[in-house]
Amino acid sequence: MEALFFIIGACFGSFFNVCRYRLPRKKSIASPPSHCPQCKHPIKWYDNIPIVSYCLLRGKCRYCHKKIPLSYLIIELISAGVFLITFLKFGMSVKLPVYLAFFSLLIIGSAIDAEIEIIPDAITIPGIILGLATSFLTIGIFSSLLGGAVGAGIVMAFAGLGKLLFKKEAMGGGDVKLLAMIGCFMGWADALWVLFLASFIGLIFGILLRKQKIRFGPFLSMASFIIIIAGSPSRFLL
After folding, report:
1. What band does 46 get if pLDDT is binned at 50, 70 and 90?
2. Both 157 and 192 in a single domain?
3. Are 88 and 117 part of one and the same domain?
4. Full domain range(s) for residue 77
5. High-pLDDT (> 70) share of the chain, %
6. Is residue 218 domain-resident?
7. Cα separation of 67 and 57, whole Å?
8. Measuring CA to CA, how many Å separate 22 from each of 100, 111, 153?
């Protein structure tokens, strides 16, 4: 079963690559079929096998020989790993599809944010609805509602404070909606832990990469995954 979920995750990762390229460009994710963004040639099925085809083609299009961004392979590997780890954590329980859907939205949103610095409403709004709709399987509807409100509120407060102190936008509206979505899936307490852990991880990356401005969405997603898989830090305080 472990190998199966790794393969399923890699296949979904291939689809996530389609979503992260087409959604911000307002293109359909259903048609046309996969094609090279450089030469527009349709990609044959044997050149579209997740992970394997990228390695066999050495990261280049078969037809125009232009390089395929390494990020395509990275997304497939991350998705495969996330699906496998989530299965190992939850097994064949009712929570498994809920958190797989949640992590899938986080992967797509983070990939788009990392590339063009936006998190589309097409990711966060359905995510908020899904978090609320499935809360009876996880944290309960009241915790989900409160989590969404606190998640959005705390980021808005940070954004306002950052704008006041630094005279520029510290966080965007996409981050507000993303943490609202995270709160709907995880509850208010874990939403705060996610913000704390994401800020810490982002600070470390910022120092290592020597960047003053970093995309916050991927770190929120990373922190959410860590807390769900490792367990809420709140349990150590009770």
Report:
1. confident
2. yes
3. no
4. 1-92
5. 91
6. yes
7. 10
8. 21, 12, 30
Q: How many domains does the chain divide into?
A: 2
- Please identify, among 73, 92, 111, the residue that sits at the C-terminal boundary of a domain: 92
Other residues' Cβ atoms within 10 Å of the Cβ of residue 57: 13
- Summarised one tens digit per residue, pLDDT across range 110-161 is 999 999 889 999 999 999 999 999 999 999 999 999 999 999 888 787 766 6
Query: Within a 10 A sphere around the Cβ of 162, how many other Cβ atoms?
Result: 14
pLDDT tens-digit series, residues 80-113: 999 999 999 999 999 999 999 999 999 999 999 9
Say if CB 159 and CB 213 are below 8 A apart: no
Q: Which DSSP state fits 42?
A: B
* Nearest in space to 46 (alpha carbons), one of 38, 37, 36, 56: 56
**Cα–Cα dist 103/13, whole Å:** 11
Answer yes or no: do 117 and 32 share one domain.
Answer: no
Phi-psi region of 179 (alpha: psi -120 to 50; beta: other; left: phi over 0): alpha
The SS3 of residue 27 is coil
